[in-house]
Write a structure and sequence with these properties.
The protein is mainly α. Helices cover 70% and strands 0% of the residues. The chain contains 16 helices and no strands. The chain has helices at residues 19-32, 37-51, 57-69, 74-115, 126-151, 155-170, 174-191, 209-235, 245-260, 269-276, 284-294, 304-311, 322-353, 358-381, 388-402, 408-424.
Length: 432
């Protein structure tokens, strides 16, 4: 194949890292990864494929393909998968903790502020967000360029990626995303030559098939059993477990939101609105205010759950809310993703090593490139690039990464600082 000798397809042996080291790497990513799910995937690639070379582009593409196909927050699941490849179950947990904690803490504190009635005193940070969003455009474009060169090195895969992007742009929706990925698998099996190259690395270190099946079983039991248990406890006030009813109701609402969302990110908002606004746990205006604040913090959008859990001071019988509510909501919404990664990744790891499946996976990876290209266009590009100034700054960010003039985290800080400085002189653009 044309890309077999590419440096992006070779990976260095994965080091024997401590869980603390893995946590610190993902904590830094959690502090600097602005721009939404597709940008997070780009940040991960820059860190682990390009900079450290602990994963090859092919292996990383296989992981992204799985996480795009299963329900849950795709970027967080990719982070969990990388953590699992580096440190097993513990690595997956500390990767999630480091990547999630910064934005979760900020949004939980914001929820407490709103619950105390002080939400109006927040300071607008529009120019900084503008600079961060422009940097995110450059980061996503740079990652897409690298993945396209590695995963679509020939005409058949390039055509497959372009077709996938066109379908996603023309028929945007979660269902089309699944169609594109399945279509990539079928097209790969039918039209692509089998990739005879060995697949390097393991993505499911330390997880046995029995443990994986147990995780999938827990996922299903909670999905089916939590609504039943919440209904039983709430209908029987004399039950010794009646005091748990509000907590079970909240845990069930956030767990189902995390378990049933396909596409992740902003797609979870209707489910969360149905879970907390419809029953009267959170006021609609407070919900929308928190969603707006979520756009200003790094890390996964699912950490919006921490804000909602904290702000439910007057909901669910006046019991659930505050710090405890934030913790319960955060664990509940991410638990399905964690169980699915543990349950599916060991089997996916085996499948991707089967020689006959390499052509199918090559098709999936090409489709994922197309999917990311569609997301780069809408909403990343259409929601950020509004004039020539925006275009110039995003192009500079792309060039900085392409020629490796500074690491991503430094570029992110430069984007925030530059936006703030331009904002002082009234030169900052608009927030899309």
């Amino acid at each position: 194949m044309a890309d077999q000798n590419s440096s992006h397809d070779r990976q260095s042996p994965q080091p024997d890292l401590s869980l603390w080291h893995i946590f610190l790497i993902f904590l830094r990513l959690g502090l600097t990864s602005f721009g939404g799910p597709v940008a997070h995937i780009s940040y991960f690639r820059e860190e682990f494929v390009t900079r450290r070379q602990w994963l090859s582009d092919a292996t990383y593409g296989d992981l992204v393909a799985l996480c795009q196909f299963v329900p849950g927050p795709a970027s967080s699941q990719v982070g969990m998968g990388i953590g699992m490849s580096l440190g097993g179950f513990g690595g997956a947990f500390v990767a999630w903790l480091g990547f999630t904690m910064p934005s979760a803490v900020v949004l939980a504190v914001l929820g407490l502020v709103f619950a105390a009635g002080n939400g109006g005193g927040l300071v607008a940070t529009g120019p900084m967000i503008w600079g961060l969003k422009l940097v995110a455009v450059g980061v996503v474009a740079h990652a897409l360029w690298g993945m396209a060169r590695s995963l679509c090195p020939d005409m058949p895969r390039a055509i497959l990626a372009i077709t996938a992007a066109a379908l996603m742009i023309a028929f945007d929706g979660v269902g089309m995303q699944a169609v594109v990925i399945v279509g990539g698998l079928i097209a790969g099996l039918l039209f692509l030559r089998r990739d005879a190259a060995m697949v390097e690395g393991r993505l499911a270190a330390g997880i046995s098939p029995r443990g994986a099946i147990a995780a999938l079983g827990v996922f299903a039991v909670l999905l089916i059993g939590l609504p039943v248990l919440a209904q039983i406890t709430s209908s029987s006030t004399s039950s010794p477990f009646a005091s748990l009813a509000p907590w079970l109701a909240v845990f069930d609402g956030f767990y189902r939101s995390g378990a049933l969302v396909f596409g992740g990110g902003h797609v979870v908002l209707p489910l969360l609105q149905e879970a907390v606004v419809a029953p009267g746990w959170v006021d609609s205006d407070v919900f929308l205010a928190g969603y707006g604040a979520t756009q200003a913090v790094p890390g996964p959008i699912f950490t919006f759950a921490a804000y909602l859990g904290a702000v439910m001071q007057n909901g669910v019988g006046g019991i659930v809310g505050g710090i405890s509510g934030a913790i319960v909501a955060l664990i509940a919404i991410f638990l399905p993703a964690f169980l699915l990664v543990i349950g599916l990744l060991p089997f996916w790891d085996r499948i991707r090593h089967v020689p006959k499946m390499r052509a199918g996976l090559a098709g999936i990876n090409a489709a994922v490139v197309g999917l990311l290209a569609a997301v780069l266009y809408d909403p990343v590009w259409t929601g950020t690039i509004h004039d020539v100034t925006d275009l110039i700054i995003a192009t500079i960010a792309f060039g900085v990464l392409q020629w490796r003039l500074m690491p991503v985290w430094a570029l992110v800080l430069a984007g925030a600082g530059g936006g703030a400085i331009l904002g002082l002189f009234g030169l900052a653009g608009t927030i899309g």
